[in-house]
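seq:
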Amino acid sequence: MSELVPARSILGGAASGPVIASPEALSFWGGVNPATGSVIDVHHPLHGTCLTGSILMMPSSRGSCTGSGVLLDLVLTGRAPAALVFSEAEDVLTLGALIASELFGKPLPVLRLAPEAFDALSHARSARITDTAIEADGLTLPVSPPAMAALELSEADRAMLDGRDGVAVQQAMRIILAVAAQQGARGLIDVTQAHIDGCIYASPANLTFAEKMADMGARVRVPSTMNAISVDRANWQAQGVAHDFGDPAARLADAYVRMGCKPTFTCSPYLLDSAPGKGESIAWAESNAVIFANTVLGARTAKHPDFLDLCIALTGRAPLSGVYLDSNRKARRVIDVELPDGVDDAFWPLVGYLAGKAAPDRIPLLRGLAGGKPSRDDLKALCAAFGTTSAAPMLHIEDVTSEAEGAAADDADRVVVTRADLVAAWKALNAGPEQVDLVAIGSPHASLDECRVLADALGGRARKPDVSVIVTAGNQVISDARADGTLARLEASGVQVLPDLCWCSISEPVFPTRTRAVMTNSGKYAHYGPGLSGRAVRFGNLADCVTAALTGHASERLPDWLS
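struct:
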């Protein structure tokens, strides 16, 4: 054991508890219930395991930027793991632990281990962590202090850090610099805009943080859009949402609006007129938005966790690290995809889902897809599904995305996604019954084109009376759909189009309480839906969703391009 690389402390502190180790990364949002500390992601090997008080070991986190808020809530309620141990770089949960320590005085140790040390510790039954060592079942690993990079700060940075721009900005800059140091950044970068993900009421901790910052006088200094929230802000009371959920969810949104954020309330900010251009440095949170911005728009943003998004918006500065740098946008894995003949719109989220599984910890280059001629909405679905299974902030698609040429690093390895892989993933996302009660469209928020295609497919036919059909979309898309008649066509078929919230934040009774099984065309929601809603979820193309809306039936057959 003396030859093992020592553990590196990322955030200090002492802890002890049973070791819970997983070879697979986990998204805390959609994967862990903040009310119990148990894993609810039905596709994860730790499903059903309570993480409270454990030494939790996994390669990294993945999925939603909101994981930082879930972890903070777990810390504040005493349900968190005792320590987090990673083998790779990790930002989302680390940021939640940093906020717990900085703003609330509740430290949670975070460590990063070399592969040999990680493997050795993962076999232990329990462990004790101090600032200098990890002791576990007779094994002792020395712990090195956090690596501290010398940060180059501008005069404006120093002014913010010294409190000359107010206490909220000072606190924000302290958090940004702590993140920059642990990422090895040498300095900060100006950003032109932000997208705030922390406005989703994932837990009471999100509200505690936002109101604390707002009460300190926080005010954003770059244009800042807001992600979908957890209620229809104008109608939640009429919809029967419980006051003890609807009120704090609305207060959370109001807190960010008070701080100067725009009430766009969409998880698809790339559909807004304010979408960034190629090469533009921005600060977005929300995993699907980050991946789409880097991959399709060619903008530059790290996958900023909740809370850090606001800190950057308050200062206009982000750590100069990760994919802000050319060298870190290279693909470290090449994925050759067997493209079936005649693929439809369900293929793209499915292949994104599998690409994330094939590259959970690095940026990939996908090859073999250009012949499928993906639309912008196809790429939206692919990026969203990729973000559920990978921690990477972007991907490349050969002959499709703008940075794909020459994107493969010289040392990139290679894997293949086969037709058999596609079949297996399809079956894994279709474990529910054939009879469905709810059709869910708009995860991420539906585009105007998607709304039009759905209206065309329904062709004026009414949904089956006992099947609900709900589309979630941003206010700008809904306004445009109203103007061109698309909204009226959808409503005539019995489709409900909801603003402000999205499928990943919807709750009962807006989510129909009587639902037993859901049909969706979203790979993202097909993955998260069972854990979030407690219902079985079926996955298919838009035509399958229309069939389910009209008949209440989801076919068990494979699509023609897979059969």
